[in-house]
Amino acid sequence: MPVLRPALLATVAVLALGGCASPLPTLPVAPPRPPAAVPTEAGATYRIVAGDQLMLRFDYQPDQAQTIQVAPDGGATLPWIGWQMLAGRTLDEVSRDLTQRYASVLKRPDTSVNLATGSAQRVFVGGEVGRSGAIPLNGRVTVTQALLLAEGLRETAATDHIVLLRPEAGGAPAAYAIDLRGVLDGSAPEADVVLRADDVLVVPRSGVANVNLWVDQYIRKNLPVSLGLNYNLNPSTKVTK
What is a single cellular component term in the Gene Ontology annotation (predicted)? Predict the structure, then answer.
């Protein structure tokens, strides 16, 4: 019998459920979280979202530094190179990309992008939870932490097929299946994925035959995900990248 880690005991007390669910469609397993012991810089982990204010600096032309506002569509108009898509990318990724783009107009194109003022970031949790709605994303929040903030799971929740919808740069979300049972019994702690801004976490009912259709209908009726995102799920098992 697996031994629970102490850190999971409180989570198990709130989330552990009995009962079995009917077979469900297959979705990819959610990308595992990075090891907590490995420190990372903000520029490598923070992903730009609409509403952010960024500081654009040119290393060899400091007088040209300026603040950039990320528009609701995720882009911004930059000096000399025009409109660029920024949302969904890390600060480091954007800095490297802009350095390459500015090489065509500047002799010394070294560019850095930093976060000046972040917009209010949040994730959405819905379905078979105690309280559906938006949860502020203050620091590092995992799936189980978000579920606890949503007042836990209902007895009718399908813990083996929680759906994570994650915005992608192309506009359509990626859908992932999370089996919470491995997190609760300690056998798969890596499934406790770290959430990003605008992630949508939906807990289906146990016994639902077509999870994608259920999630699609639930989102359209209950969650405010029209904030610049397009969650049009095909009610099939295929995930559109």
Answer: pore complex
